[in-house]
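Quick one:
INPUT:
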């Protein structure tokens, strides 16, 4: 717990045994609940998660957004930390974010990987894709957004009852931020480091990028 608030960590995972080991090398004592959503892994992801006493949920329907929605339904904490299980996001900084959520009454904090330009660990194609989609999100939805594709968020679980999340895939990262802003919740971005991922790259730059763009255009035109 942190300041009497129960904390849940939710991670969608597809073949992330190495990333999970890196994450679990951190101090986890302040986490009350760790939920690993296994999205059809073929490696030892579930074994590693159970070694560290995580709750493992098997979600057979593939999809980043699907896995998150499944995990969020099971989370019981007052505050949810959501991040990828590949070791790219700094778990330690989340402790500071959660304190800010509680002490400053913020509803949603998103980690900003781009606050100091291109992270060394991020390929150029991914970096320019992030810049492009952040520009679109700023143009249509959130004027002050700095990193629309970031996959590390800390938020009050209560807001899940008031936002509508539909994306099954990678567009979920931008959708949750757009929904939070559209519903007038207090949204803040704070800088984080972005580390080199452990294990196989799952992002399909062009295919996932195209789906992200389609999602944004549909959202703009039909809502």
């Amino acid at each position: 717990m942190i300041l009497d608030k129960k904390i849940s960590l939710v991670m969608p995972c597809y073949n992330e045994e190495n990333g999970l080991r890196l994450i679990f090398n951190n101090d986890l004592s302040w986490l009350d609940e760790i939920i690993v959503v296994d999205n059809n892994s073929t490696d030892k992801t579930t074994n590693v998660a159970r070694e560290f006493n995580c709750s493992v949920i098997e979600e057979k329907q593939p999809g980043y957004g699907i896995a998150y929605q499944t995990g969020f339904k099971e989370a019981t904490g007052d505050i949810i930390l959501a991040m990828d299980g590949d070791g790219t996001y700094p778990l330690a900084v989340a402790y500071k974010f959660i304190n800010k959520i509680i002490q400053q009454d913020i509803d949603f904090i998103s980690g900003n990987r781009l606050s100091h330009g291109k992270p060394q660990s991020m390929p150029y194609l991914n970096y320019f894709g992030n810049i492009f989609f952040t520009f679109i999100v700023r143009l249509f939805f959130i004027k002050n957004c700095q990193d629309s594709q970031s996959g590390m968020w800390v938020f009050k679980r209560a807001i899940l009852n008031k936002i509508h999340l539909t994306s099954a895939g990678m567009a979920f990262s931008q959708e949750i931020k757009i929904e939070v802003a559209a519903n007038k919740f207090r949204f803040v971005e704070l800088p984080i480091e972005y580390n080199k991922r452990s294990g196989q790259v799952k992002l399909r730059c062009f295919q996932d990028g195209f789906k992200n763009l389609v999602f944004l255009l549909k959202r703009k035109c039909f809502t």
